Amino acid sequence: MADCAALRARVQELAEREWDIPIIEARVRKLAAEGLPRKQLDRVKILADRGQVLDRVQRRAEEYNLIGRNCAKSTALAVMEEFGLGTMEIVKALSPFPGFGGTGWMCGGVTGGLIALGLFLGSEDMLDYEAVARTIAAARRFMVRFEEQVGSVLCPGIQEDVVFGRYMDPAASPENMDAFARAKGFEKCGLLPGIGARLAAELVIESME
Asked: Is the pTM of this model over 0.90?
């Protein structure tokens, strides 16, 4: 069951955090210019440094949400960067996914996390049914954990119960988006990319055990 009081405290911490914006922007610009670096994953080191990896992925997803103003892209990018997955073209393709196309449905912390899991566990072979089954099993675990931790996978419930006390629907109009920004929505909503990226990274690491 979601600990809403603890989540709200985390939201407030994000609202009050002093962000090192030049450093974050420089990292984002480098990824845009050079692409995601390829990595030879060291399973033993990743398992040994599990806590540090999860903390780093969570922090970067929060930072990318502030800079990129897109919860789905931020979630996926943090995991992709950590494990050397995919390309920036995939991040671009996630542009319409916050609130599932701005409709107020699936949280971008969920969709971005699922994309990252698909990149790590899936297969380019359409006939690789074992990879499909493996990915779906991980996705189901991810969905359960996200809902248990946050209380919902849908934007209106999350915003009302955890982030703002009401649904702000930022995509509905320029006025709503302006109100969302004034309420520090991009800082506060970093909670969800942080959680989504951490849970996805956790499942990636579990698959290595």
From this structure: yes
